[in-house]
Specification:
Elements (H helix, E strand, L loop, with lengths): L8 H4 L43 E7 L3 H17 L3 E6 L4 H10 L5 E3 L3 H7 L6 H6 L17 E2 L2 E2 L13 E4 H6 L11 H11 L1 E2 L5 E6 L16 H6 L4 E2 L4 E2 L4 H17 L1 H10 L10 H4 L2 E5 L4 H8 L5 E4 L12 E4 L5 E2 L6 H13 L1 H10 L7 H6 L8 H10 L2 E4 L6 H16 L5 H19 L1
Parallel strand pairs: 1-2, 1-3, 8-11, 13-15
Antiparallel strand pairs: 3-14, 4-5, 6-11, 6-12, 7-8, 9-10
Length: 462
């Protein structure tokens, strides 16, 4: 495991309590380089609802934990009631390395979620679901935003139905009380990163010893620092460029926009002091699930976050007042309303015992309102289906109405890039921003280094 790795949103759901952690990143890359295997689509129609000849159990391994696993277990029980003879075993705290170890050991689970999907798909260990989806009487492809399919589509094959947790990924969340206390107008939030920086300066407070007591924003907290496992690198969309060309299998990171992004992040850290920001992060966790994280604790005024946060904050900070607006963009793009689709799908592993029955469970999890509402009411998660979004109670959680409106009101809707070496991308992202923040190299040098590293990662993949 690379020691630069940091906790991501999925890690925060492994238990009810969350330890203070650094900024976000994807799970550890597998030790061996991926082996490209030509995909082979199922040659049978999706299974019917007929019960199996003998009782079977579907193993579903996810990297979530805590309340998310509890919700999935409830979904499994409801599915069994509708599909006699098929039970489910939900296993939490899984990751790519555990999946690959199971594959190597001949104990492959049927399904997996909250993983570095493309790294597994590119290895050839997943079953394409294209034919099943096309023939399905349950899945209606036009009921999903077309962007939501991108992360699970590779080399012309679809490997999963978007769902389980597929909220719009981006917004600028802010603590209304802290904003008003600083003399700022919560009804006129910043639109660009330059404007966010002005708020950052007014919202940041230092104690008598000069340490950060309250910060305006950590730009790499939550979605600002995340890459992989269903979460996009949001900075590229903020600046308006694609960082990976799937057709050409080429990264596009050595560019002025990347240097500007790294310079922007450094500006926020320099104002607080890079060492003081690191000390602040040691004292307070990231994301919004735990009451001890900076944003729900009321010591961090802003965060770039997604549609799960209203539900999480209803539990972690029920006494505070939060609002949401569009994710910040670069100054030349001021006024652009940008939303990014990512999220999760139940992928199915080809060497497992019960792939067809697993597909039936995947349909239930992603297309049945009963399952969607279990996850929505118990965890705060949302499916990708547009029909569900049209009838959801937008007022159930404070501020959630923004995310509902963002689905139709966004000027730009970006997909999560289908990157087969996303774990390497995440590792190099941390190296680039830390290297710039601590003055080890310039933003331009960091962009070049990053491009070189990712080019090598693709070459090593074969």
């Amino acid at each position: 495991m690379n020691t630069n790795k940091e906790l991501s949103r999925r890690d925060f759901l492994r238990g009810a309590a969350v330890a203070a952690a650094g900024v976000t990143l994807a799970a550890c890359a597998p030790a061996a380089a991926p082996t490209q295997v030509a995909p082979k689509a199922p040659t049978v129609a999706p299974p019917t609802a007929a019960p199996p000849a003998e009782a079977i159990t579907i193993q579903y391994w996810v990297q979530w934990g805590g309340t998310t696993v509890d919700g999935l277990k409830k979904c499994g029980e409801k599915f069994t009631a509708k599909s006699p003879g098929i039970t489910t075993n939900i296993v939490g705290d899984a990751d790519n390395s555990k999946i690959l170890a199971a594959v190597a050991g001949g104990t492959t689970p049927e399904m997996g979620s909250n993983l570095d999907y493309l790294a597994l798909i590119a290895r050839g260990v997943c079953t394409p679901q294209t034919e099943w989806i096309n023939a399905s009487r349950v899945v209606k492809k036009d009921d999903f935003p077309k962007e939501s399919w991108a992360l699970f589509t590779w080399k012309g094959q679809v490997y999963g139905i978007p769902g389980v947790e597929s909220a719009p990924r981006e917004s600028l969340g802010y603590n209304v009380d802290l904003v008003e206390k600083a003399g700022l107008d919560p009804k006129n939030p910043p639109q660009t990163w330059d404007e966010v920086f002005e708020w950052h300066k007014k919202l940041t407070q230092f104690d008598s010893a000069g340490n950060a007591a309250v910060i305006g924003i950590d730009p790499v907290d939550d979605m600002g620092g995340s890459i992989g496992a269903g979460d996009p690198w949001m900075w590229a969309a903020s600046w308006g460029f694609d960082y990976f060309d799937e057709t050409a299998m080429k990264f596009n990171l050595d560019r002025p926009e990347t240097a500007e992004i790294l310079s922007t992040i450094k500006k926020f850290y320099d104002f607080v002091g890079v060492e003081k920001m690191a000390a602040f992060r040691k004292g307070y966790g990231t994301w919004t699930f735990s009451p001890t994280a900076g944003f729900p604790a009321g010591v961090q005024a802003m965060v770039v976050t997604g549609g799960w946060s209203p539900g999480w904050l209803a539990q972690s900070a029920p006494d505070k007042h939060f609002a949401y607006t569009w994710m910040p963009v670069s100054t030349p793009r001021k006024g652009k309303k940008v939303q990014i689709w990512g999220g999760h799908a139940p992928i199915i592993f080809k060497d497992s015992k019960h792939t067809q029955e697993a597909y039936r469970f995947a349909e239930y999890l992603t297309c049945d309102d009963e399952a969607a509402n279990i996850m929505w009411e118990g965890v705060g998660f949302q499916p990708a289906r547009l029909s569900w979004w049209k009838k959801v109670d937008a007022g159930r959680y404070q501020g959630f109405d923004f995310f509902v409106k963002s689905i139709t009101d966004a000027d730009e809707k970006w997909p999560d890039e289908p990157d087969p070496v996303v774990s390497s991308m995440g590792n190099e992202w941390v190296k680039a921003r830390d290297g710039v923040n601590f003055g080890n190299f310039t933003p331009e040098e960091a962009a070049t280094r990053w491009q070189e590293a990712m080019t090598k990662a693709l070459q090593d993949m074969g």
